[in-house]
C-alpha cells in the first residue's frame, strides 16, 4: 500500500510539478463545539424546515464521529440516552424528515489556492469570495432538504448533519484535468421531541465525477454548473441513504479519488 502511494504521489508530482506547496487539512481532527454565534450569525446557518415542524439550530451540537463511535454521545446536549437504531426496509423509507440542520465547523480549513489538489477541507469557487463555510452550508442544506422532501414514512425525525469535507474543483483543475467533487459528512436521525439519537451517527462519502476542460464548458452551457451537479447529486445521495437498507454506496472514481484520500 505504501509503495502504491509513493508511485501515485510521484506521478502527480510529474504531472503537476508547479503545485509544490500544500495546505494541511483539519478534517481528521475531532469536531470543535461551535459557539451559538458561529451557528446563527452567517445567513444560511439556520436550520431548514422541511415540513410543518422545525428544530432549534442552536440547541444541536455538532456530531462527533470519534466520540459517537466511542461513547454514543447524543447530538443534542439535553439528550440522555440512545434509542435503538432504526431499521430501513427494502423498497421504502420508514421516516418523514421534519427538519434538516447542517453544521460546517469553523475548524474546517478553507483553501483558496489555485492548485490541482489543494489540501484544505473546503474548496469552493462558484460563489464570490466570501464566507465559504456559510456558502457550502447553504448548498448542502438546500440539497439535503430537497432530497428528503419526498420521504413519507411513519417515523418523524430531524436530520442532523456535520460537514467533514467539501472539495469542488479549483480554476486550474476545472479548465484542464477535471477530477472529483469530494464530499463527506456525518449524519444522525434525531427524535424531534426528545433530541435523542434514533440512529447511530454514520459517515457518508458522496464523491462525484467532476468535469474538466471542454466537458466542463459544455456542461455550464447547458446549465450544469458545479453547484447544480453537486446539489442534485447530494439530494439523491440522502434519498438513497435513508431509503435503501444498505444506505448510499459511494462511487469508485479511479485515480483522482485515490489522490484525494492520500
Automatic annotation (TrEMBL):
UniProt keyword annotations, A-Z: Signal
Organism phylogeny: Bacteria, Pseudomonadati, Pseudomonadota, Alphaproteobacteria, Rhodobacterales
Protein name (Swiss-Prot/TrEMBL): Lipoprotein
Signal sequence, renumbered to the chain: 1-21
Pfam families to which the protein is assigned, alphabetical: DUF6778
Keyword Signal included in the entry's annotation: yes
Amino acid at each position: 500500500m505504501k509503495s502504491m502511494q509513493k508511485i501515485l504521489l510521484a506521478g502527480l508530482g510529474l504531472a503537476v510539478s508547479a503545485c509544490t506547496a500544500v495546505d494541511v487539512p483539519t478534517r481528521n481532527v475531532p469536531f470543535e463545539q461551535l459557539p451559538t454565534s458561529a451557528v446563527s450569525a452567517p445567513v444560511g446557518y439556520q436550520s431548514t424546515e422541511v415540513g410543518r415542524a422545525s428544530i432549534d439550530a442552536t440547541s444541536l451540537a455538532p456530531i462527533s464521529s470519534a466520540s459517537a463511535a466511542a461513547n454514543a454521545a447524543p447530538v443534542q446536549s439535553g439528550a440522555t440516552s440512545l434509542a435503538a437504531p432504526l431499521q430501513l426496509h427494502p423498497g421504502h423509507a420508514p421516516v418523514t424528515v421534519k427538519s434538516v440542520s447542517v453544521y460546517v465547523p469553523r475548524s474546517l480549513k478553507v483553501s483558496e489556492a489555485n492548485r490541482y489538489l489543494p489540501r484544505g477541507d473546503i474548496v469552493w469557487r462558484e460563489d464570490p469570495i466570501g464566507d465559504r463555510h456559510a456558502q457550502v452550508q447553504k448548498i448542502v442544506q438546500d440539497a439535503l432538504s430537497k432530497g428528503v422532501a419526498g420521504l413519507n414514512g411513519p417515523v418523524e425525525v430531524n436530520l442532523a448533519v456535520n460537514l467533514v469535507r467539501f472539495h469542488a474543483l479549483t480554476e486550474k483543475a476545472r479548465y484542464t484535468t477535471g477530477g472529483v467533487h469530494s464530499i463527506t459528512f456525518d449524519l444522525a436521525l434525531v427524535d424531534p421531541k426528545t433530541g435523542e439519537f434514533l440512529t447511530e451517527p454514520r459517515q457518508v462519502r458522496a464523491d462525484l465525477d467532476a468535469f474538466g476542460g471542454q466537458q466542463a464548458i459544455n456542461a455550464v452551457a447547458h446549465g450544469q454548473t458545479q453547484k447544480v451537479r453537486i446539489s442534485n447529486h447530494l439530494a439523491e445521495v440522502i434519498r438513497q441513504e435513508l431509503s435503501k437498507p444498505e444506505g448510499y454506496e459511494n462511487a469508485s472514481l479511479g485515480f483522482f479519488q485515490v489522490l484525494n484520500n492520500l
